[in-house]
């Protein structure tokens, strides 16, 4: 089950379509869907989590806590809407496209993909592009 929670004044317009797409991503990776919570927040909220749980005193767009057991994907994905907006401007893409990238990024971590080195980052970016393309097909 994919849940969307809001700790800021942002709301997804298309929760059902996003949930359907993320479920398709899980299936495409031959995984099972457990409980996945997306929590949309602001920079301050996510910065506190970054400092408290990861000991990183920086702003970030997404933090995911992975509770996956075996083949069943579960976890909490915290997304700073402020960072996504800023990053969309920095990367010259729409807010919606950058949001999809961040939404699927957390899910891909649960599927076993990492992004710590250059080679892993390249694989992650390619997987993000592949899964974002599914959004248009699934609609």
Automatic annotation (TrEMBL):
GO terms for biological process: rRNA processing. Its EC number is 3.1.-.-. It is found in: Cytoplasm. Keywords: Cytoplasm, Endonuclease, Hydrolase, Metal-binding, Nuclease, Ribosome biogenesis, rRNA processing, Zinc. Its cofactor is Zn(2+). It comes from the Bacteria. Binds 1 zinc ion. GO terms for cellular component: cytoplasm. GO terms for molecular function: metalloendopeptidase activity; RNA endonuclease activity; zinc ion binding. Zn(2+) binds at residues 105, 109, 115. Its main location: cytoplasm. Single strand-specific metallo-endoribonuclease involved in late-stage 70S ribosome quality control and in maturation of the 3' terminus of the 16S rRNA. Belongs to the endoribonuclease YbeY family. This is Endoribonuclease YbeY.
